Every structure is written in C-alpha cells, then in structure tokens.
Amino acid sequence: MNSIPTTALGLAESGLPVLPLRADKRPFGNCPDCEELACGGRPNMATPGPCACPWPCHGWAAATTDPAVLASPQWTAAWRRARTIGYHPGGAGVTVVDLDSPTAVDWACTHLPPTTTVPTTRGQHWIYRGAMRSMNGVRPGVDLKSTMSYARWLGPGTGTLTEIPDAVRALAEKTPTTARPTPRAVTVPAPAGGGECRHRSPAYLERGIAMAEQRITEAASAVHSTVYRTFLAVLSAHGRCGCLTEAHIARLFAAAQAKGESLRHCTDAWSNARIALGM
Q1: Is 223 in contact with 136 (CB distance < 8 Å)?
Q2: φ/ψ (deg, to 5) at 65
Q3: In Å, how far from its chain's centre is CA 230?
Q4: Short-list 111, 148, 110, 142, CA closest to 124
Q5: pLDDT for position 259
Q6: What is the largest CA-CA distance in the chain?
Q7: Which of 127, 150, 230, 247 stands 20 to 30 A from 106 (CA)?
Q8: Separation CA 90–CA 69 (nearest Å)
C-alpha cells in the first residue's frame, strides 16, 4: 500500500507545505491548461500554494497544506504516481543547506553551528529556522533551498532546530567569482523536430537565443526559476521544428552556469521544460 499520501497529509497537518515528486525526484510537469504558463501562473509566485488549476502544477509553488487540495481527485492521482514527497522550505519558515558531498559536510561541521540534520544519498541537509533567498552553488557542493524552491522530505532528522546563522545568510549575498565552476559541456540532445518551422530565417532563431541568454544573465534573483522559464520559452518557440541545435542549447547552459547553476540543475530544468511541453 502506498503510504506517501498518508505521510504527506500528516506533514501538511503539521504545517509543512507538501507536493508530490516523481521517481526522478522532480515535481510533475504542468497540466495542458498550464503549459507555457497559459493560465497566467500564480499572482504572487513568492508564496506557496497552487494556482487556480486543480492539478499539482508550477513545481514548488504547488506545495500546500490544504487538506481539501491534497485529497482532491487530481492530487490523489498524482500521489498514486509519486515516489517521494517534496516540500517548500520557505513556506514552512525554514532554510535547507543542501550539502551534496562528504567534503561539503566537513565544511559545514567546521563553519556552521549545529542544527537539525537529515542524511541524504550523497551528504546531508542542515535545516535552520527562518526563510531566506534560495541559491545554488554558493560553495562547491552547497545549495540553499528556502523561498521559491523545494526539497525532498527525508525524515525529521536529528538535533535541535536553530536560527539561520549569519554565515548562511552571507552565502546568498556573495557574488560568485573565481569560485564559480567552469561551465561543463551540455549533455542533452537537441529535440528531433518534425513540426512546422515558423522561423523563415536563421535571424529569428539567433535573436531568440540571444534574448534568452540575456534574460538569464540579467536575472537578479530567482535564477533557478528564471532558467526554467527561459528554457520553457525557447523550447516552446523553437523546439518542435528541428532548428534548435546542441550548440544553441550549450549557449543557454553556459549562460545558466555563469549565474551559478550546476550542470545537473541545468539538465533538470531542460528536462522539466520538455516534459511540461509534452516533448
């Protein structure tokens, strides 16, 4: 018997905004009515809760504590397909310091005060009381997950929850320079195409890619969300006719990695965008 819905409901009752995650640990793609944000999205994406759509759409923003939503037919169907539970840390008033390697854990043990810790596959989640800006790659193997982000529920952990230390808040304020990882080559194939081409000239595609690079480069906050939305827009406009090449995708990935996104997060965002568009 699938215990995920029961566990999720219990977490929601305790005040934790939850959402179903797939086997690859990502949220479910948007429903057809919400593809390409045709629904207009949520009025304020900085707060948790679903849009008017009854399905668990819009990733982290779908996270909710509403028992009526969680038990609705659409969410019940999603829970049956879910393989794990996600939650919105910022909506619960906490920040997750995601330590993705033993080296990152060693760094935290030396530089951060003790708090609630949860073991993960490759490291640990250190959870602090208080919400803050989310940011990936603040240090090698270290991501901050709070507002406008989601984390996997891996259990209550051990240790006493403490306030976010200044050392963690400072990580989100730093502008990565030489510590930023060198962009790695893109490893995802270009869409196969087969649809009608609306470009009529290479200049249209080039302008679209250049605008996408600029949008990512100029993002002042919510970089992960900006990258996903930009990938979604590019695939929507250029992904079905076969004109989009791996060289174009590499340019987008390079722009995202220059803002601190890891290759893994870029690949996840690209895959999520393709799934949302049914590609």
Answers
A1: yes
A2: -110, 0
A3: 13
A4: 142
A5: 81
A6: 61
A7: 150
A8: 20
Q: What are phi and psi of 108, to 5 degrees?
A: -65, -40
Helices and strands in the chain, H and E counts: 9, 9
Q: Is 1 helix (H, G, I), strand (E, B) or coil?
A: coil
Query: Distances from the Cα of 273 to the Cαs of 7, 20, 36, 78, 243, in angstroms?
Result: 28, 18, 9, 18, 17
Query: Can you spell out the DSSP letters for 26-86?
Result: -BPPPPGGGGGGTT---S-TTS-S--SSSS--SGGGG-B--HHHHTSHHHHHHHHH-SEEE
Residue type, 48: P
The chain-wide mean pLDDT, for the chain, equals 83
CA dihedral 60, 65, 66, 70 (to 10 degrees): 70
φ/ψ region of 268 (left if φ > 0, alpha if ψ in -120 to 50, else beta) reads: alpha
Q: Are the CB atoms for 137 and 260 separated by under 8 Å?
A: yes
At residue 112, φ and ψ (nearest 5 deg) are -120, 150
142, 106, 141, 131: which is closest to 46 by C-alpha? 131
Average pLDDT over residues 9-36: 87
Question: 113: phi > 0 → left, psi -120 to 50 → alpha, else beta; which?
Answer: beta
pTM of the model: 0.64
Question: Residue 112, by phi and psi: left (phi above 0), alpha (psi -120 to 50) or beta?
Answer: beta
Question: 112, 146 in Cβ contact below 8 A?
Answer: no
Strand 142-145 vs strand 94-99: parallel, antiparallel, or unpaired? Answer: antiparallel
- Burial of residue 181, with CB atoms counted within 10 A of its CB: 0-12 exposed, 13-18 middle, 19 or more buried: middle
